[in-house]
Amino acid sequence: AAVRVAWVTALVGLVILSTPVKHLLRWLALAYVLVLVLVPVGLILWRTFAPGIGAFVASVSTPAAISALQLSLLVVAIVVPLNVFFGVPTALVLARNKFRGKSALQAVIDLPFAVSPVVVGVSLTLLWGVHGWFGGLAGHGIHVIFSVPGMVLATVFVTLPFVVREVEPVLVEIGEEQEQAAATLGASRGQIFRRITLPAIRW
To answer: Quick one: 128 exposed, middle or buried, by C-beta within 10 A (0-12, 13-18, 19+)?
Structure first.
């Protein structure tokens, strides 16, 4: 019995830590995270600017670098509205409704978190490649793989779950009371979304 009491006392002592020990553990965890982030970023910056600022400016001023930057900005300009258009309604459906297949839909949304980008690239190639299921579109002048539409599809597949998973908890947190009150006052669904739901998501 005495040994058991001693073990219990030791476990309680480990669980109920003093304030200095708690602060020490927090600082250790923070230092660990900073090392994981700062060391790779520092190495990248060091390798980038090691030849000098002039070499860096010259490398990012090449036609290839400028073309890559323009292409990235174009993909972002297309993907962001698509994520908003599809992500917010999807989060709204998941947060406001209970229906059969909801778990399956959530699993599909979370699929990009578990699937390797390599698998995504291979799947898109098998679907939209020349010999893929929809490869016949290339004969009509519609090229998806290795072009802007393919980049947009891949980027939307990867980024859309982040939008849904960020917006859904916000919708759950704000609840439905304000929306229901507006509906009882005669507001349409569009008015409710524009004047109540969207400002709550935005802020």
So the answer is: buried
Tokens of 134: 């929809």
- Residue range 70-95: mean pLDDT, rounded: 91
Give me 115's structure tokens.
């699937």
Contacts of 135 (CB under 8 A, 6+ apart): 128, 129
Nearest CA among 131, 125, 126 for reference residue 146: 125
pLDDT at 73: 93
pTM for the structure as a whole: 0.69
CB 36 within 8 A of CB 30: no
Q: What is the DSSP secondary-structure string of 51-116?
A: T-HHHHHHHHTSHHHHHHHHHHHHHHHHHHHHHHHHHHHHHHHHHH---TTHHHHHHHHHHHHHS-
Residue 164 has a CB neighbour count (10 Å cut-off) of 23
Task: Using the CB atoms, write b or e for 32-67: b if 16+ within 10 Å.
Answer: eeeeeeeeeeeeeeeeeeeeeeeeeeeeeeeeeeee
Among residues 144, 145, 155, which one has the least CA distance to residue 83?
155
- 179 CB contacts (<8 Å, ≥6 apart)? 192, 196, 197
Return the sign of the alpha-carbon dihedral for residues 109, 69, 38, 19: negative
- Tokens standing for residue 15: 């669980």
3-class DSSP assignment, residue 145: coil
